[in-house]
Amino acid sequence: MNSCRGIALVAACGLTLLLFGFRTDLGQEKKAAGRQASESINELRKAAERGEAKAQLDLGKKYSNGEGVAEDDVKAAEWIRKAADKGYAAAQLELAGLYENGIGVTRDYAEGAGWARKAAEQGYAPAQCQLGRLYSVGQDVAKDDAQAARWIRTAADHGDANAQADLGEMYSKGQGVPKDHVQAVSWYSKAADQGNYQALESLMNMYNSGEGVPEDRAEALRWLRKGAEKGDAYFQMLLGERLLDGLEVRQSYTEAIFWFRKAAEQGNAFAQESLGDMYHEGRGVLQDYSEAASWYRKAAEEGSDSGQYSLGSMYARGEGVPRDFVEAYMWLNLAAAEAPAGKIRDQRAKERDLVTEKMTAPQITEGQRRAREWNPKGWAWKFPYRDRVH
Q1: Could you identify which of 84, 133, 246, 257 might form a hypothetical disulfide with 251, taking C-beta atoms 3.0 to 4.6 angstroms apart as the criterion?
Q2: What distance in Å separates the CA atoms of residue 176 and residue 141, rounded to the nearest whole number?
Q3: What pLDDT shows up at residue 14?
Q4: CA dist 324 to 16, 327, 356, Å?
Q5: What is the rounded CA–CA span in Å between residue 206 and residue 243?
Q6: Span 101-115, mean pLDDT?
Q7: CA-based end-to-end distance of the chain
Q8: Treating both helix axes as pointing N-terminal to C-terminal, what angle do 53-65 and 2-49 enclose, rounded to 10 degrees?
Q9: Beta carbons within 8 Å of 147's beta carbon, 6+ residues apart
Q10: Which residue, 207, 132, 211, is CA-closest to 170?
């Protein structure tokens, strides 16, 4: 017995030592990483202080993003201006954005346009595209479609994907250039081949509707799949819907779930809601109410009113979550408030009222409080229909 205890003690001590060593290694790695980051910032600062324009721009971005230094928009603007004053085009365009948005400097649209022009006149394609966009909408400069087309074409000819997509749109609408769908498809295709999502969506829509090109659902699907494969959550969600419904493609619940999951993991609320439906109904996966509730919650917290309704209903029934009338009331209340006037809102309000019949007065008060104080996860704006919450 004693020998066993001795062996157990040695084993326990050995495990403790191993764990201690593991934790020490982790601590040392973190310290080493911190030292490397600090050394990197110090080297960057030295280069910036020597007057190297790229280093000045990079240091400014570090201050802007709070990377390795405390976030400081004023210092960011100061370092970026130093680089811009040296004629560094990338910094000039960055400074233009700071003035247009009033970040670290007093907002000044004319000043912003001036810096964008300086960069554009040096042949910097992203700045040429930006200047063209300013002429296109008449922001900071007088609206001039011909000037917009000139600058955007220049950037597009330099291979800038955003400019190529913009030029495609201009040809599609006949803005600043003659309306020409052949040219539109050509420029959209150049941008799409570089992974530009605006161009991918435009091509998909044109082939779906037959606008300016022969209707070709297979070609539309090809561009949709390309966008999904490049990692865009919106395209992944759309592809999942096509596969779920069997639209222009062989129906496949398994593939639909694959694409919904990819989009959902990027925070796409529609995909999260769809994934919740698949688990709730057992389509392509084993039915799992707990997993369904988990995905409905993610969608609800992102602001999806359908996700809120589904989650509220599950709380009311106790499906996949403990039955909780206060939580049910909150989510159903929000879902009703978000819905457009009509049948859907009335249905959700009716279900909320049915839950109310099972609640005490204090529970109703608490549900109302939670609904009033709720805001979508990660969104800057407040809940827009606060006045509809009961």
Answers
A1: 246
A2: 16
A3: 46
A4: 43, 6, 12
A5: 20
A6: 95
A7: 69
A8: 130
A9: 132, 135, 141
A10: 132
| Calpha distance 164→126 (Å, rounded) | 11
Ordered DSSP codes for 272-292: HHHHHHHHHHTSSS---HHHH
**Nearest-angstrom CA–CA distance, 355 and 336:** 13
Q: 10 Å Cβ neighbour count for 291? A: 17
Region 366-370: mean pLDDT is 96
pLDDT(115) > 90: yes
Q: Considering the chain, what is the average pLDDT of its residues?
A: 88
- Ordered by where they begin, the domains of the chain are 267-390 (1.25.40.10)
pLDDT in tens, 229-272: 999 999 999 999 999 999 888 999 999 999 999 999 999 999 99
**Assigned token pair, 230:** 């490049």
DSSP state of 383: P
- The whole-number pLDDT of residue 386 equals 34
Whether residue 335 is predicted with pLDDT greater than 90 in this model: the reply is yes
Closest by alpha carbon to 66, among 109, 111, 104? 104
- Residue 378: enclosing H or E segment and its boundaries? none
**CB count in 10 Å sphere of residue 318:** 13
Query: 238: which 2 tokens?
Result: 């759309």
Q: How far apart are CA 51 and CA 288, in angstroms?
A: 61
Distance, CA of 159 to CA of 122 (rounded, Å): 16
**Residue 336 carries which side chain, given as an amino acid letter?**
A
pLDDT at 313 over 70: yes
So what's the pLDDT on residue 155?
97
Per-residue confidence (pLDDT) for residue 248, from 0 to 100: 81
